[in-house]
Protein 1
Amino acid sequence: MFRGSQFAVGRAGCPGSGRMVRDMVCAAVLLCGSLAAWGQTSGSQTSGTSNPLPTGILVDVGGYRVHLHCTGNGSPTIFIVGAAFSFDWELVQREIAKVSRVCTFDPSGTAWSDSFATAIRELDPGASPNSAPTCEDRVNEIHRLIETAPIGGPLLLVGFSVGALWERLYAANYPQDIAGMVIVDHAFLPEPGAAARSTGAKAPSRAYTPPVLVAQAPMVLGFEDDVNFGRLPERDQALHRWALAQHPVRPGEAMVVDCVAQIRRATRGRSFPLGDLPLTVIRTGDQSPGYDALQTRLLALSRQSQIVMAWQSTHMVPIDEPDVIVKAIEQIVERERARGGDRKMRP
């Protein structure tokens, strides 16, 4: 298991310098604002007596607890892999709950879930308590949560930003009972020289906020900075601010590099690694170098893929245009219910 300390992230760029980054054909650049919503450190959250009550339940996933929030009924179960806090998905979750069961969660080190320092003691007793979570840690945690809760299949996975990388690695490692996938503004690594070109780019429209490069730490934009943050119910806005104050763990560039390397190993360069699995890729009007090429590569993950534009969104699609995500999920739900039968991927 890769420990986060093996991929130290600096202001100057990606770990390991150029070759590793150039070899990462299909991963994430611009872990923009949403990543800032995960806090600044990999330490444990701040504990306190005034913490709000969880919206869902705390599930023991092997010596530590992860917060899970499920609503609605029906099959398939929509499991939102991340990123962002569970309550940041409220505008999507409340609509999907009207048609099927939908679950969000908070990874260890965020919101009500136990700290990652607690988790790492169970996962790898020999690891440093200051270790950062790896891509494998996150994917295995998701799998234990799904198996323990139990959430039950078939599953429709939804991954946002770096969560799309967790989603893809999960699908590669645990293809059984996956009914479909929705990728929401997949994070990616810059092309060589793209960082310098992107910093001077102008926004294509008033509605678009250019993402912030991971290497340009500290990242300062988050859901709370988005013009549409106020669309969330007041309760969820308050929960978001509370969760930020707990110093939650956030994914960063090292996580992306790690995820991409593991996805490449897991898929072994196969064409259409998702087979005929229904896949919807939601993109924004991002004009960053390499962003358009990424969308083409994502479409090549499945023979049954389509791309959908979120024209009025920044990176924060779950609050800017939640209806785009809802419609994409509903289409796959309808297709799965009409199809029935074999739900496994066929590479």
Note: The domain at 15-339 is CATH 3.40.50.1820 (Rossmann fold).
Protein 2
Amino acid sequence: MNEKEVHLVKKVSKDLGITYKELADNIGYTEANLKRSVSTNQLSKQLQTSIELYLKTIKLEKEIEDTNQLKQLLNTFLNK
């Protein structure tokens, strides 16, 4: 990892406004594991993949929510 790059754990935590503990809980890691990864500036392939899948899940959940809202609006409009 390039030293100038912001560590993925740090970036995702900041972008989502969550703590390392919350991120760890959401991806099945321990807070200590995430802190160790940041302090050593190392990122395992498994941790990177877990974070990427977590971000995809968040995105897909948002898309489902948006789709359901659109569906509800369309149903309301069509039933008038």
Note: The domain at 8-78 is CATH 1.10.260 (434 Repressor (Amino-terminal Domain)).
Protein 3
Amino acid sequence: MKMQNLKTLISKKASGMPSPRFRIENGDRNSTAGSRADYVPAPRLVLTVLLALALGFGVRSKLLGQSAGPANPGLALVGGTIYVTPTDKPIRNGIVMIQDRRISAVGSKASLPVPPNFQSVDCSGKTITAGFWNSHVHFFERKWDNAADTPAPELTRQLQDMFTRYGFTSVFDLGSRLENTRHIRERIQSEEVLGPRIRSTGEVLIAPGAMPADNILRILGEMPLRNLEVRSAAEAQEASKRLLEMGVDGIKIHLQPPPPPEPPFPRDAIQAAVIRAHEVKKPVFVHPGSGADVIAAIQAGVDVVAHTTPASGPWDDSITTGIKDRSVALTPTLTIWKSSMRHDRISAQDTFTAVAVGQLRTWVASGGTVLFGTDIGAIDYDPSEEYALMSRAGLSFRQILASLTTAPAAQFRDSERLGRIAVGLEADLVVLKDDPSRDARGFADVAYTVQGGKIIYRSAQ
């Protein structure tokens, strides 16, 4: 009965008007025979409706969390070895409790009993860390095209294969069609699909003619991409301004030289883009092609050097001096060099990779920050080889863990929300099957991935 009809009925009853009689079903929906049970006086019906409304309000109050019990059951990860940060002493046989998307408690299992309404996950023999960041990814493969209309289960599976099965709860996309990537991000944020937090630079600043033709991109499995060609510092500022107004999370500059006679990306244009981005506190990434490019990027004030440059030979002090004071970071992307040379002789692959590993070693020895990044989207998804090569470069288990957690959170101004296991922070966590301090490849062997307090990936084994 509509509310207006109910009001009219009550008004008629109060004024002494005769009450109509209403027919109701007697339990046999197929029966058409009338009986005294088929009819009730209007006042009785009014009371029935009012009671139903009252009960409805009570149910709604409970659904809104106004009942005595909590609205959402919590989650407890129990019995694992917890690395709250890469530098703190681990908590053995620990427990992490999560409620309302945030970490509510962390400590030893003996001192923190699990509340009865919590879902408990046995993590005995496993390792628990903050959620991983991959700070160099791409959403330019053809599979991501038309992301707004890709069925949710399929999109979730693609995100799982690429990211969440390896513990990545945050990623930085360094080159894709912004509008399309934004659709992926929005569908994750709405919880329609399961995937990582996504930051993106969108389209990239390049020199005129430096972008491969569309048919070449299709052969490589990529979508056509309309990057922004820059010929001067003024054009770099204007292009950066346009991208920032579109809502990008950073600016990416690709220093790939174009075929002659086109000029390379102007050196002063790098700094012009940096100035524009830093006005709104957004980071700038540079893809270098040589050691000279790395020097130019550092001098221009970029935030992240997006690759090593093994084709230019070993790095020395002329490249890495001052990187610690400038707070510039490096995503080494060591695996991509072996991948890009997979058609060459194995000895050439080994030599090329060894140079990249040495460059990372030099960077770390100079005090530079390292952010884990694989250029995923351009290479195979499994990051285990990247972890092994970082270990070969001399990075300890804790240094690799920092590159996955605290370092990117600090570099991208998100340390108050992500990157550590601490009460009040977003519950982005990884449960590893074993202890990666014994073998760096163990960072890729994930049992559970938790984002915002929700398990978004669990291993079949």
Note: The mean pLDDT is 86.
